[in-house]
Amino acid sequence: MVEAHESLDYEYALDHDCTTLSRHVFQQLQSFSADAQDLSALMSRIALAGKLIARRLSRAGLMEGALGFTGGENVQGESVKKMDVYANEVFISVFKQSGLVCRLASEEMEKPYYIPENCPLGRYTLLYDPIDGSSNVDININVGSIFAVCQQEGEDLDGTASDLLQSGRKLLAAGYILYGPSTMLIYSIGKGVHAFTLDPSLGEFILSSENIRMPDHGPIYSANEGNFWQWDESIRDYIRYVHRHEGYTARYSGALVGDFHRILFQGGVFLYPGTVKKPEGKLRLLYETAPLAFLAEQAGGRASTGTQDILDAVPEKLHARTPLIIGSKEDVALVESFIHERSRQAIAAH
Question: What are phi and psi of 312, to 5 degrees?
């Protein structure tokens, strides 16, 4: 009897070690159809990009040319880090000969990168932020990559990629890679949220948490309070509220992926509101807020601009920005309540 029990434990452990990312996609879709094979291959390529970036990051302090600024600016007018450029090129390289994606659209590129040899076969577009929180790279603190996959609609013959200007409800998959003490890949294809941890000895991402559920309420609020006086009064009302009530803890790292990852597992809310001067905020809808909103909703949480669900927001241009309130359902609703109250007062005053 003991032998049988040990055998079952051994089988379970082995089966767990064999639950790789590509196998998990097939299990999720319960199919080996062409579409399932495409999605599995897409996730494997994203995983490869993650491994290459993780390897570079782990040696960044020892490699010449890995750290610091390039001296250039990206399409948003932000200073570009060398690691941003490297990571952006990694995603392009791993998909170039894949036959999978027709276009890659990135926060770092003004226009999408087209791979004509993959079209029209590869009907997918990869949207991504190659290195989120890149200001943390030079000081060896958590950074991440954010990604989303959508189906190409139409031929895009004029090269404007106007079909990408759609709501996040149309995403097929989304996720992020967190480069921390261990490298993790979190993803969803609309069937829950699942976490994989890179096992360096196997060179594979192995399933570590399945069907993650975000708590309905959590103690953490994550915001850059240095912007307090640049925020709308309604956001300041919320911050005053958490300052005056017990049970809240402030956590903010300056890397969206790391802060969201904490809230995904522990509950709470992350805020990156607009400012009075820039009400649209800083974060990009296609590359940051919509992919994470997709994950949040799949995990039982919510993501809002303050006035509408992020996944219902439709961008007017490729690099459109949105404010972001994301996390546990009750905590997002609480922030929204302060926004609605200020709005009601403003209407009443007129």
Answer: -95, -10
